[in-house]
Amino acid sequence: MKSTAKIIIVLTLITVISGAVLAVLDAYTKPRIDAYKNKIRNEAVSQVLPENVKIETINKADQTFYKASKNEEVVGYAFQVSGGGYQSELVLMVGVTADFSKIIAAKILSQVETPGLGTKIENDPSNKEDPSWFVDQFKNLSVAPAITYVKNVKPSKDNEIQAITGATISSAAVVSVLNKGIEKFKAIIQE
Amino acid sequence: MTEQKPAPEELKKEIKLETTPEKETIKEIDEKPKPDPRRRLFKSDRMTIVAPAPHNRGNKSVPRIMYTVIAALLPAIIISIMLFGTKAMITILVAVFAAMVAEYACNKIMKTGLTIDDGSAILTGILLAMTLPPSFPIARTALGAVVAIVFGKMVFGGLGANIFNPALLGRAFLQASFPVKITTWTLPAFAGVDSVTGATPLGQYFSDGTVTSLKSLLIGNVGGCIGETSAIALLIGGIFLIIIKHADWRIPLSYIGTVFVFSGILWLINPEAFPNPLFMMFSGGLILGAFFMATDMVTSPVTPMGTWIYGIGMGVVLVVIRIWGGLPEGVMYSILFMNGLVPLLNRWTRPKYFGEIQIEKKK
Amino acid sequence: MKEKTAIQEFVKGIWDENPILVQLLGLCPTLAVTTAAENGLAMGMAATFVLLCSSFLVSMFRKVIPGQVRIAAYIVIIATFVTIADRFLAAFVPDISKSLGPFIPLIIVNCIILGRQEAFASKNGIGRSLLDALGMGLGFTLVLLVLSSIREILGSGTWFGMNIMWESFAEWGVMSQAPGAFITLGCLIAGANWINARRKA
């Protein structure tokens, strides 16, 4: 009986102290962690929207998106889209024009594709002048009809991009994530 | 070190030892110390045991088999040098040289006695080179050959102890390391202008649906790895190996047969969506893999039943990779995958010895 | 058994009882995060921090914690320090925290840490426990650093992000992937065993 009491007291004490320490720590580090997350997100949002615009954060139907307006007129939206890549989840920030006809720009927030192959969707060291050529292709790309990709040749239509040689699945995944995400947010925003 | 089954002469001696009086036994052992068991494993004129008991000593030896396989590869080597020119020859020579140097270094470090004369390193080098595109850089070819010998064979304890086909393991390493270079193909010289990059028939099919003609596939004037393009040259060597019984006929038959039947069924269901079975059979490295790599005595099952399962498994994996996978070609992975299952297949399909099964008693 | 001196207590973790090369503990983070030298070093230091703090507390309270619930108590103590390390990395070096991903929280189940509490800190005084923890942590960090350096140099041609290979060097992509981790670790363990075998002979 005495030992049971001791077990309860000791374990309770340890957990209470541990909880208290963590509470203090959380209060101290949370602002910094949140500030960092906000900074990253704001940078991404401003990169995929036109310059000199007013950006508002809007929550609608459990989704967050960002509305860009210039002189009271809406010029575009930005939102985060995600989906399965070749090995992991792809997360992109994408900006589209107000009528959802064109992508303004897209940026990859996180990806864990095959190093040296799928990772070229974000950074292609073999293209010294423009390592981010793959995502840059999405600038001013038409999304109606949906984006498609071609292999080994230069894209000929306004809704086409060129897939990375040897990393077709990762390239196709980016296209599919964008197509699905834009569709989804179009429905939410234009509701 | 694992226990070695004594070769017949030693077996006799041991039986004799048991029957002779004890004093003499000790004397005999003193006079002739038993050789290091590892030396026996590596002594290259002795056949490694690759069949379920009982055993009968034949006249085959490791060097003899290796050099016969190399001879059977000659038509394909000659054709490939004709097709791809000196680049193909240099790649083969570099791979063979690097493989032999790696084997020699391992022999020295592991103190196993020299095994470079048994021809297995030469064969590994040739097979590795034959699975590489002609434009593959020389330094990386050498790296692949070293990996094939060191990590594919020697770390397991040398020839006979390896689980995976060394040449394919070396290629898998190169595929994972240099995925772009290893899929950059050069078209053969007489298919057009020299050194034009182009797609393989399989790559072409899966990107835009072009089916290369059967004639080109048989002769080999298509893009591809050094040794895989000419189906005829490979078939000549392969059938020769089967006739002289250095390769088990069940393996190519079940492997290629499964590919034919499986892709044939898919093609009959929907000829639009799936490639025709003859194209599947003769494109890519299937013939090379089925006759020269899957039949490797060390990494294939020893029982007939196991061999059938092994071949069918490879065929299914290959078709699945080619049609639904992310890669146009899957010969390498299909063989490596089934190589990994060989120890299990051997155990599972071991023949029953007389008296092992108890007859159920009638109630 | 002969009592070890304080120095032996410290040194044993670096080579003779190295957590990775000899005890083969904590292999999951070892294989997973060592794609770049920076990650390896950060992982090693975070684990060392947790190990030191936990060993200190466990050793201090070793007579108070009842035997029946000792594992639960150790885990709570370890988890507290892991969370502290995780939050600090996220707040001050967010880039490293992002690339280590879920492996910092997973230090909680790293066998080296729980193993040292159970095998050493719960039976020895504070001083010895700290020396043991420091030695083990250092041994872990050193192997991680060597492993991740080899993988980064061969797999990306860089070391701590600096280009150190010649211009035409082709990265061995496989080294940045999981098989490269296994091959390199296998070679390191083989090398350590080879050296030990020669030392004994």
- Largest interface, and how many residues on either side? A-C, 21 and 27 residues
What's the total number of strands of chain B?
Answer: 0
Give the termini separation of chain A. 65 Å
- Just name the CATH architecture of chain B: Orthogonal Bundle
| Basic shape of chain A | extended
Determine the N-to-C terminus distance of chain B.
Answer: 48 Å
Oligomer: heterotrimer
- Helix content range of chain B: 55-70%
Question: Describe the biggest sheet of chain A?
Answer: 5 strands, antiparallel
Could you estimate the helical fraction of the residues of chain A in percent? 25-40%
Q: Uncertain spans of chain B, ≥5 residues at pLDDT below 50?
A: 1-7, 10-49
Secondary structural class of chain B: mainly alpha
Number of structural domains of chain B = 1
H/E series of chain A: HEEEEEHEEH
Total domain count of chain A: 1
- Specify the number of helices of chain A: 3
What Rg of chain B do the Cα atoms give? 23 Å
Structural summary, described in words:
The complex is a heterotrimer of chains A (191), B (363) and C (201). With 191 residues, chain A is an alpha+beta fold. Chain A is built from three helices and seven strands, in the order αβββββαββα. Chain B has a single domain (62-348), classed as Ammonium transporter fold (Orthogonal Bundle), CATH 1.10.3430. Helix content of chain B is 58%, strand content 0%. In chain B, α5 runs parallel beside α7, α8 (166-177) packs across α16 and α11 (231-243) runs parallel beside α14 (286-293). The termini of chain B are far apart. The model of chain B is unreliable at 1-7 and 10-49 (pLDDT under 50). Chain C has a domain at 6-142. Chain C has eight helices and two strands. The mean pLDDT of chain C is 89.
